[in-house]
Amino acid sequence: MAELSMQDHKRPFKDYAARHFRWECTDDGRVATITLNRAEKKNPLTFDSYAELRDLFRDLAYASDVRAVVIQGAGGNFCSGGDVFEIIEPLTKMTMPELVAFTRMTGDLVKAMRRAPQPIIAAIDGICAGAGAMVALASDFRLGTPEAKTAYLFTRVGLAGADMGACGLLPRLVGQGRATDLLMTGRAMGADEGLACGFFSALHAPAEVLGKAQALARTLADGPWFAHTMTKTMLNQEWAMGIEEMIESEAQAQAICMMTGDFRRAFEAFASKQKPKFEGN
Known about the structure:
Structural class: alpha/beta
Distance between the termini: 26 Å
Number of strands: 9
Number of helices: 11
């Protein structure tokens, strides 16, 4: 019997039935929007929502339709972190093996987001704190509003700033000095500071930020999707490489992309002075 390829396991996710957040897709299924929807508490995460987000981002590797994901919070805030009474209080009563299982599970959400082939765009308004700030950090793009306040609050509750990969991811985005400041003090970073240091790609009015994020997602979804996936993969893999490995890995990655139909279609469209139509293959 012939072995099944990953392509044989692809399935549509347009009608995915989310249990602990909202999931909405465009008519063609290419752009999905996740909404953390506990607005009355500023959209905190629970054990269940952590696990469902982790599993969803893992499974999106098998999506036949979704090519970009937007994540936002409801009610003028992004995410306030772990729910104080549904997560933090139970943690104070757990054994060491239970605590390690929890911290590994939260880190698995970040790993799943980084490994998902789709570009992930966070639309951030209001409070973006603790684990919510890590969800933003694990995204590929962050669009904010002037009201956005980002804080890595772990030290405020007696924990290390080293949580969910923060000590590895944040310095690569904002620099070692600023990351040290944010992770040790737990202070809130305002929108202008976040834009200046590269945390945010752009700032938009609260009424516009979701639309801007979805427009960016649509541009990426309609673009050379296979090539975007390769770019994300190489951005992840090259952190641990030297210059020789980086250049050789990119040579191989680019050669793979040159074998795709998208590459040929792009040339043919350029030659005929038309806009290319990418198909992700």
